[in-house]
Amino acid sequence: MNPTPSDAQVAALNRRIVLAARPEGAPRLSDFRVETGPVPEPAHGEVLLQTLALSLDPYMRNLMDPVGPGYAPPVALGETMVGGTVSRVVASRHPDLRPGGLVLANAGWQDFTLSDGSDLLPLDSGSAPALPPSLSLGALGMPGFTAHVGLLDLAQPRPGETVVVAAATGAVGANVGQLARLHGARAVGVAGGADKCRHAVQVLGFDACIDRHAPDFAQRLAQACAQGIDVYFENVGGAVLDAVLPLLNPGARVPVCGFIAHYNGPMEGASATDQRPALLATVLQKRVRLQGFIVLDHYGERFEHLRRFRERMHRWIEEGRVHAQEHVVDGLLQAPQGLIDLLAGRHLGKTVVRVAEA
Amino acid sequence: MNPTPSDAQVAALNRRIVLAARPEGAPRLSDFRVETGPVPEPAHGEVLLQTLALSLDPYMRNLMDPVGPGYAPPVALGETMVGGTVSRVVASRHPDLRPGGLVLANAGWQDFTLSDGSDLLPLDSGSAPALPPSLSLGALGMPGFTAHVGLLDLAQPRPGETVVVAAATGAVGANVGQLARLHGARAVGVAGGADKCRHAVQVLGFDACIDRHAPDFAQRLAQACAQGIDVYFENVGGAVLDAVLPLLNPGARVPVCGFIAHYNGPMEGASATDQRPALLATVLQKRVRLQGFIVLDHYGERFEHLRRFRERMHRWIEEGRVHAQEHVVDGLLQAPQGLIDLLAGRHLGKTVVRVAEA
Predict the structure, then answer these.
(1) ipTM
(2) Is the CB of A273 less than 8 angstroms away from the CB of B275?
(3) B residues 30-89 near A, CB within 8 Å?
(4) Beta bridge partners of B91
(5) What gap in Å lies between CA A138 and CA A352, rounded to an integer?
(6) Domains, chain A, with CATH or none
């Protein structure tokens, strides 16, 4: 158990978790280091933010590699790990941001940071008073928005179609399945283990969920998708994709948002033979639309698209139509272990680190 | 030289070229057999068609495999090879089709066939009086329409963007490059050999064309695409795709219409290692849209979409804005060698077999 520092402590000190070494394969605790320093002072036009909750996400593994994923620069050795946060404005020299307000921010893995306000989304404007602020890191934030953009904007499932998503109890997958159901589609999940599959069906409302560790996984997926697969929301790659490809229906849409199976090394999850010709043959013969997307592209002018998404999603959560599950890691210093556990698939729902009391 | 049969002979006899054996790798002449039989008689509601020109196309290799490409059944052993034709109605018991008219048909590799009219597009309705009827198998037909659908409907190049197409002097590629130029994009071709590359630039008007046999092919392609690649019209796979992937710009569109590199066997053109994870990583990081399509899907209600395309393309050809090159193979019995040569890349432009005089 990691003690939460007292207010006096956090006021005196900024703790940062920096990248100490570049992992080979799965990250280890020794790849991270804690550094402490003074709390920075806002210049004119800046605010000082205190981190309340930190988001942990699979993409962070990519940013630990020497060559980043292209859409964002890698974290330099010795630099603070990056990440989305719910933060409180604790001091302001910015004309529009007052102390006390909550914002969606990019403070990274640390207690305090400065911002000029350009990357902040105010959260206390009355849109979500009854829900925990940390949901803005999950169902109401980047992972929920990723599900929304990939499924609804790009794949556009029609009523009665079959939508498959892996990591079905993860921060993105759980929302994909629930949004698919809300739009009249059949949702078939894939998850690692019987407990997760039960959760997907009983709590999240998936029509079926298949354990990817089952020896007859491919056959069971085929049985659960007797009418074929119309939308495959790709976030894992590897063996799940192998089982999905033969089941794709003509005209299938495959939004591509990530590859957890490959994040710990480019060749992990690779076959001994070249599967690219077979993939392209499927794309051609089934007229598949494979569409990569980075949710950052879709934040739009001053978060306007995100803002509209948040309003819809907030209503669905309040109405009980979307279940927003969180796995809370207690304390900033537990973030490294939290990311290691997340990448190993040990969490249910969205993983957030509680850094300070809201 | 294959003598053209006299009118008396063709009236008496139907020659069919049938699939004699399933090729392993490149087809050989022994995979085909000529059979003769009586000219069939049209039943009520049918027409008798005489083949004037037969289209040869790479997809025919796929139909020779025991398991077809999915969008069309494979040719059975002993059955007539299938193919698009320009045919003349020589006898009619159909209310709407009169003897003497020309139609775009699917007569296959034979002199005569029957049709109930449902798969015929009349050609003599005044839309293309000044152009050779066989162009309806090339720039005005399936290959031209494939270029049109893939490039203009799916990829939608914007002025100033860079479009890359392989098999640049082939029936589809030549149209892709010329249509790209017509829409203000830069067209960079890839072709096998210096002669083809010269033809692409000097006759077809490509901005550049790179010889895929050059030892420094990838570097030369990169130099020709200094602003990156916005559209890659995929019709070959293999090494060209390897060179293209690192050059794709964010938001690139990749319509997928075929894989000549893989047609003689699923693993031909495959790498020793699995390139699927790398392809998917590129799709994700560059937000690529990879879109398989089968042009048959786009013929639309009673060929309406094809009809509109033909009107536009006919005007461009007449105005000299699109150059429609044909490689004419003389005589039905030369069709097998014609397909073998086509697959080996020995032809410039669209390959058609002249079966009878128009």
Answers:
(1) 0.85
(2) no
(3) 69-71
(4) B48
(5) 8
(6) 7-129+324-354 (3.90.180.10), 142-295 (3.40.50.720)
